[in-house]
Specification:
The chain is built from four helices and five strands. With 113 residues, the chain is an alpha/beta fold.
Length: 113
């Protein structure tokens, strides 16, 4: 798997991933994302700044992650999506359903932490 790590910034757990999110790794990301949602913190943030490509399975991963956060009563946001990811989200008209933070400073404001 490409680079995957989880950082804590205030009350947010930030999932940092670098590489492609495709059908080849989406299920593993869903499993790891579930563990993050079930852990501590009031919010989960998916850092997409180093994601170079995302396919429909990757979009499904983001939707599942957001849904799990909603069910757990946690806030969810995307952090710094790469140009490619932004284009894909816009193409499938999901850019409006995900709160997006341009940077870590913006993240606290969006999540109201």
């Amino acid at each position: 798997m490409e680079e995957f790590r989880v950082d804590t910034i205030g009350e947010a757990r930030v999932i940092r991933f670098a590489g492609e999110i495709t059908m080849d790794n989406a299920q593993e990301l869903k499993n790891r994302g579930r563990q993050v949602v079930e852990g501590q913190g009031q919010a989960v943030v998916m850092d997409l700044s180093k994601v170079t490509f995302i396919d429909s399975s990757g979009i499904g991963f983001l939707i599942v992650l957001k849904s799990r956060c909603d069910e757990a009563g946690k806030r969810f946001a995307l952090l710094s999506p790469s140009v490619q990811v932004r284009k894909t989200l816009r193409l499938v008209q999901l850019d409006a359903i995900f709160p997006v933070a341009a940077n870590e400073g913006d993240m606290a404001r969006i999540l109201s932490l």
